[in-house]
Amino acid sequence: MFSLYRNFNPLKSLSRSVSTINIPNLNIKETVYERSDYPLGNKNYLNEILIKGSKKADLIAKNNLWIDSTIIPNNNLIVELNSLKNGEALYKDDILIAFVSEKFKLEKLYRRKTSLKIIRINSLTDIFTINSSEIRNDFELIEKKDNSLLDCKSIKVFGDKTNIYIHPNAKLKNATLNSENGPIFIDEDCDIMENVSIRGPFSINKSSVVKMGAKIYEGCSIGPFCKIGGEVSNSVFFGYSSKSHDGFIGNSVIGKWCNLGADTNNSNLKNNYSNVKLWNYEFQSFVDTGLQFCGMIMGDHSKTGINTMINTGSVIGVGVNLFGPGFTRNFIPSFSWGGSNGFTEHKFNMFKETSIRVMKRRNKCFDENQSNLYETLFDMTKRYRNY
User: Fold this and answer.
1) Domain coordinates of the chain in residue numbers?
2) Sequence-ordered alpha helix ranges (H) in 249-367
3) First CA to last CA across the chain, in angstroms?
4) How many other β-carbons are positioned within 10 Å of the β-carbon of residue 111?
5) How far, in Å, are 178, 261, 308, 369 from residue 325 at the CA level?
6) Residue 145 neighbours by CB distance under 10 Å
7) 213 near 196, Cβ under 8 Å?
8) Measured between alpha carbons, how far is 196 from 194 in angstroms, rounded to an integer?
9) 54-90 pLDDT, tens digit each
10) What DSSP assignment string belongs to 199-216?
11) What is the sign of the dihedral through the CA atoms of 95, 97, 101 and 103?
């Protein structure tokens, strides 16, 4: 809320608020809603886009909790947030974490300081770099119940079985689970097919599928209703996205409703082993991430054709259709159509028609509100499409 939201383009703030980033299983709104005594205020520029001609009120209740969307809550922080009174603000040094007020006003707030260690997501790469530690933290919140599936002879376990949770409705056959370096969480109605190997920390959400023979390394989170195959390392997939076939994805973040064609691969390490630079919308330039390993950031509703090669440190916008031979450029603006041989604009009507078909397959509707949102984003990002 108080951060530069453009630091999270194209993945989040172009198409939804930063507070809905899932690291790894719960986003900040879900985490605070579940354990806070206050309703959350919502100061979001998307409100007026989603409902054209109207202004959705920020006011939810008399005493709203306004919290920095980049803060990752934990139990100790929730306790301090619940102790805030109307007109009080919680600070860590000079960083405003949260305040309680009827409206979004920063004036005349009484400052309270916290000594807690505060974890923030300041950039897109934080989503995968801190994912392993947050899987461990989230795993402690899970109410562990029956784990009798682990007694199946076809499941090979390395490490502590108590560090693995499998929902009773999940399906596993002839899988290898290694929890020596971190926990493994497999949610309701997930299907882990034959000969899959998984190393924790790892989490997979409701109704997702890991295809036969997949190799999943540490630090991966898979959102709900995803399909994952091939080789994946330290990457985060948001809901309803598919990487069903062979190919490598590493140190990457994939938005919602994305599809990676067979044998799509991304490079996550430069040949000279130097730090990876990533396009930054706030600075309008490539910025040193300080990371040696960094793959790609892909916005919602983007797709790749078969055998697509994605360069180290690529930022791929919303509604991109990527295909063809050779490595693509490192920054691909939203609503682009093409590949290494050149790009044209992905016309909005074509994007909308495809999105309707894709979402209908999952019994979801690309409704008028979403159409308004993405059409606005199409206009907002037009200046980048000067191929």
Assistant:
1) 24-120, 128-384
2) 348-361
3) 33
4) 10
5) 36, 13, 7, 36
6) 9
7) yes
8) 6
9) 344 444 566 788 888 888 888 888 889 889 999 999 9
10) ESSEEE-TT-EE-TT-EE
11) positive
Q: What is the enclosing helix (H) or strand (E) of 202?
A: strand 202-204
Structure tokens at 267: 């490079």
Which two three-digit tokens encode residue 104? 């979004």
Q: Is 378 exposed, middle or buried (0-12, 13-18, 19+ CB in 10 A)?
A: buried
Single-letter residue type at 137: N
| DSSP β-ladder status, 95-101 and 314-316 | unpaired
Residue 33: phi and psi, rounded to 5, are -55, -40
Q: Give the tokens for residue 238.
A: 């948001």
Amino acid identity of 45? Answer: Y
Distance CA 341, CA 338 (A): 7
Bridge partners for 297 per DSSP: 253, 315
Upper half-sphere CA count for residue 295 (Cβ side, 13 Å): 23
**Digit-coded pLDDT (tens) for 306-355:** 999 999 999 999 999 999 999 999 999 999 999 999 999 999 999 999 99
**Helical packing angle, 348-361 and 368-380, nearest 10°:** 140
> With 0-12 CB in 10 A as exposed, 13-18 as middle and 19+ as buried, what is 349?
exposed
What three-state secondary structure class fits 350?
Answer: helix
pTM of the shown model: 0.87
CA distances from 322 to 258, 261, 276, 340, 354 (A): 11, 10, 22, 9, 14
With beta carbons less than 8 A apart as the criterion, state whether 317 and 332 touch.
yes
* CATH number, domain 128-384, options 2.160.10.10, 3.40.50.1370, 3.10.270.10, 3.30.565.10: 2.160.10.10
Short-list 345, 355, 354, CA closest to 378: 345
